[in-house]
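Issue: copy button drops trailing tokens. Both records pasted manually instead:
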Amino acid sequence: MPGPPIRGRRPKVRVYAVPLPGYRIEGPPDYTLGENVDRVIRDHFDVHRIIVRAISSADHPPLTLDQLAHRIRAKGTDRYDPERRGVAHEQFAPYHADLQGGPFGREPGAASFFAGVMRHFYEDAPIDRGRPLRIDLLLIYDRDALVPADTPDPGSPRVRPGLETFLFRFKDPDRKPEALIGLIKIP
């Protein structure tokens, strides 16, 4: 299994493509397809040392998937435009988070890790985006290059208990690209 990145040198970002032509969001996705993505993650990353962030290029118009991946590799994050506000910005603002993601692991009742993420983007994305989203890019981060986001006052109206477990900041904000160790494209 690959070890931690060598400090002082930017590690090479490993990029993989997992075509899932059967993954559609016009109706409930075929969640069994998630195992194909899980296999690539298990085969190429130490699953105990990563945080995975899933995104949809639909949230990044007019960029193509390849253009978006290129920008993310250069910046280390999909927050490449300081003027652009993320989805649910007001809800996440008290946490001072750089990204939302989670460790590799299967949710209860999910057929695979990626199946659980697919479900969130299909069932939960309509709440804040008005429509389901198809995930087409996973950002794989070195867990040791991230720290938990701030835990704001629990009495704040924008705070949801437990949300902070999925919110992170870069340990060294000047070295974001070094935290990114992989990208998985899902065309």
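Record 2 (pasted manually too):
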Amino acid sequence: MAEKWTVAQRKVGQESSVERQIDFTYGQAIKARNALNQGNYKTTQKRLRDVDRQCRRLEWRGGGWGLRHLPDLDQVEDLKTDISTVRAAAKSGVDHINNYLGLDKLAKRKKFAKHETKLTAIKKKKNELKKDIVRDVMMAVNGAKRANDIADAEPWMDLDIISKKKKHVQMYLKGEGYYQNIASGARVAHWNSWWFHVPRRLGLDTKQLSCLDLDEADLREIDLSGANLDVNSFRNANLTEANFKHCHLKDAYFDGDKTDCSRAKFVEAWMQGCHLSEVNMTGADLTKAHMWNANLTFANLTGANLNETELVGAWLRGADLTRANLIGTDLRDAHMHGVNFKNTTLKEVNVQGADLEEAENLTSDQLLAAENWYSTHNIPLKTLEDPRIFKALKPLHKTYIKFFKERNPDFVKKHIEFFEEPELAKKT
């Protein structure tokens, strides 16, 4: 290795990422070989001790930077094997050098000066030890090189490899194990760059992304467009500006008062039965999303775009639709008890069979702009107290009048004279 390590750099190598640690180990093994070539056995021994120490740190250290924190990829198993080989070779080399230096010291004693036989035996043993030392050093160098090549390739950051198993995808996206030391923004940026090319390059089986536990994950601005995320759990996750366009999110769990889906994109997503209660969806884009029977109880949908969204049978109890846009939205049979309609845009919305009991800030203008409004349940009296309501009711067929009387009994009771007029039953 051309680069020279200073004391400070050595510390960095020992304390930083797996790649840096292995690079340091390889550098020390090279230095051990160079010292051996110069006949400097003490320096060789010192470098081999550094190699052994660093390998031990790699195998046992915590904090997310050790080998045991890496995902169980085939390449990682090879890496662990190489590090074990390097450590064994380094320890063996240290022991052989100890023996060699001991014999060298012994041969220099005066009492052996005239004992040719003993000197010959010592010399023979030293030559054997030299071979052992060379073998140990070369094993350490070669093993460290193989490990360094794997570390340079960083297979644990190769999403083509990681995406083959759900548990590895979950570790990466959630920031677990080795990935806890990588900033969420860096992980997401790396993912988005890769995800953009997935359809063309891999034809990834997106089922690998379903049924993941991503609770409390920081996935701001993540791009998961087109993925199959059915039954995934995103509870209390940060999904600000996440891209879920065309995703399959059937029965997925987002519910939680700490879940942040503000400005997230769910355009044309399939979200049947999706759990979104108490979720912050401020400014979210749900255009043409399929949300039949979804649970949006107490969700914050302030400023959200719900144009042409299918919310048939959805639960919106206590949801905040302040300044939300609902144009062409399908709200048939939706449960909208206590929904806040302050400054909400309602146009060509189908509310047939919806329950509007105790809806807040619902104006007669909003109601009259909706389709089938007369077949909704429990429209607040305050909203109905408008002459235009009577004007709109008057020309309706008797069947629709019947619907209205059944679904809004309090209003009918209050204005019984109007509804008992025989002309109302006639088709105009």
